[in-house]
Amino acid sequence: MGVLDIVPAGVLTGDNVRKLFDYARKNKFAIPAINVTSSSSANAVLEAARDIKAPIVLQVSQGGSAFFAGKGLANDKQQASITGAIAAAHHIRTVAESYGVPVVLHSDHCAKKLLPWFDGMLAADEEYFKAHQEPLFSSHMLDLSEDPKAENIETCVKYFKRMAPLGLWLEMEIGITGGEEDGVDNTGVDNAALYTQPEDVYEVYQALNPISPNFSIAAAFGNVHGVYKPGNVKLQPELLGRHQEYTCDKLGGSPAQPLYLVFHGGSGSTKEEISTAVNHGVVKMNVDTDTQFAYLVGIRDYVLKKKDYLMSQVGNPEGADKPNKKFYDPRVWVRDGEKTMAARVKEACKDLGNVDRL
Ligand SMILES: O=C(CO)COP(=O)(O)O
Ligand SMILES: O=C[C@H](O)COP(=O)(O)O
Ligand SMILES: [Zn+2]
Ligand SMILES: [Zn+2]
Predict the structure, then answer these.
(1) What residue owns the CA closest to ligand 2's atom 2?
(2) Does the pLDDT of residue 183 top 70, yes or no?
(3) 3-state per-residue secondary structure call for 254-279
(4) DSSP state, residue 226
(5) Closest ligand to the CA of 285
(6) Which InterPro entries match (predicted)?
């Protein structure tokens, strides 16, 4: 039995998202969530998932969404981020089934000041629901982790009550991911905030579970966005086991892993940290920085290797009148970036045990 016996190929919504994460948690694997910013990077991720026979999460950040629509657009009211997220969702929906893999279509961190972006996506979900009886996206993340805990949870409850009837999954963050995320610089936050306490996780569970079981928690265990010199980050994925135990005890001793947990800042993590996290019920691990770099590597190497064919439209080492069109066509050099990005996505899948799962 595999994932396709449980959920269909293409973009998943509603209980299918939970069925996928449930299957992953039970079978001790997790699904990488890769940030995409263009149809090219989205296709590279889908291609990798297809080749390795794995379900996948594609996510757009607020900045990535704006890029998807075009950096030339004004974004003072989040209008480009809203348009770009919708454009990304329609692109991914259009091609996902052709790749034959189940896809979770997700939006990444949304801090308080970015809520107009969230509101715009949710309006698009509601409109799509009217026509198709399912939301446009599979899932959205709210990240009010910088705000007081009560306000964070209250805001999640408010939005989740609107999301759940549409069949939308909610990912929320409690405890702070260090490093940088769009418009939010967490490089100097208090160290304790980087490690969420089990009581806080249970409080979130208590608030959200009565609304719907379709939610996950990004509890901080020292996570940091970006890649830094070794030793800068002290990940403690074993803390996630304490969250599961605490909530399990409060629920009367079962199930042993009641929580769907999310691992932010996957780039640069060791194989051991990743497998410990997965054993403790992480079902989704976000990877951005490493796949950004991987996309560059193919393009960088192409340009360095073909430099003498790229300096003018006509004329290269083979002759002063030789045309260079086939060397500077973006379908050639962007494709090399897609290949190296896809290879890094496959590595993330392997690290998470997400191979041959269909
Ligand atoms: O958590 C992430 C996106 O939300 C990705 O983090 P990295 O860029 O460190 O992989
Ligand atoms: O939040 C972390 C992700 O890496 C998104 O990054 P971004 O906001 O620069 O697109
Ligand atoms: Zn955050
Ligand atoms: Zn993150």
Answers:
(1) 181
(2) no
(3) CCCCCCCEEECCCCCCCHHHHHHHHH
(4) S
(5) 1
(6) Aldolase_TIM (IPR013785), FBA_II (IPR000771), Fruct_bisP_bact (IPR006411)
What is the rounded CA–CA span in Å between residue 280 and residue 285? 13
**Helical axes 115-132 vs 79-99, angle rounded to 10°:** 50
Picking from 294, 279, 282, the residue whose alpha carbon sits closest to that of residue 48 is: 294
Indicate if ligand 1 lies below 6 Å from the C-beta of 167. Answer: no
Question: Could you give the CA distance from residue 284 to residue 231 in angstroms, rounded to a whole number?
Answer: 24
Positions of E strands within 134-181? 139-142, 169-174, 179-181
pTM over 0.80: yes
Q: Please say whether the beta carbons of 117 and 105 come within 8 A.
A: no
Q: Tell me, yes or no, if 108 is annotated catalytic.
A: yes
> Is there a contact between 279 and 234 (Cβ–Cβ < 8 Å)?
no
Q: Tell which one of 139, 142, 181, 345 to mutate to probe ligand 1, the residue whose CB is within 8 A of the most ligand atoms.
A: 181
Candidates 314, 307, 309, 269; CA nearest to 289 is 269
Q: Please give the distance, rounded to the nearest whole angstrom, from the Cα atom of residue 135 to the centre of ligand 4.
A: 23
CATH superfamily of 7-287: Aldolase class I (3.20.20.70)
User: Rounded to the nearest 5°, which phi and psi values hold at 186?
Assistant: -105, 25
User: Which residue, chain included where needed, has tokens 């996948």?
Assistant: 56
Exactly one of 108, 200, 288, 351 is catalytic; name it. 108
What would the mean pLDDT of 322-340 be, rounded to a whole number? Answer: 98
d(CA 82, CA 8): 27
Per-residue model confidence as pLDDT tens digits over 113-168: 999 999 999 999 999 999 999 999 999 999 999 999 999 999 999 999 999 999 99
The single-letter DSSP state of residue 193 is G
Report how far residue 264's alpha carbon sits from residue 181's, in angstroms, rounded to the nearest whole number.
11
Measured in Å, residue 216 CA sits from the centre of ligand 4 at 13
What gap in Å lies between CA 341 and CA 332, rounded to an integer?
Answer: 15
CA 265 to CA 287: how far, in whole Å? 6
Contact 90, 135 (CB under 8 A): no
CA distances from 333 to 40, 300, 311 (A): 12, 9, 14
| Opening angle at CA 149, ends 148 and 150, nearest 5 | 95
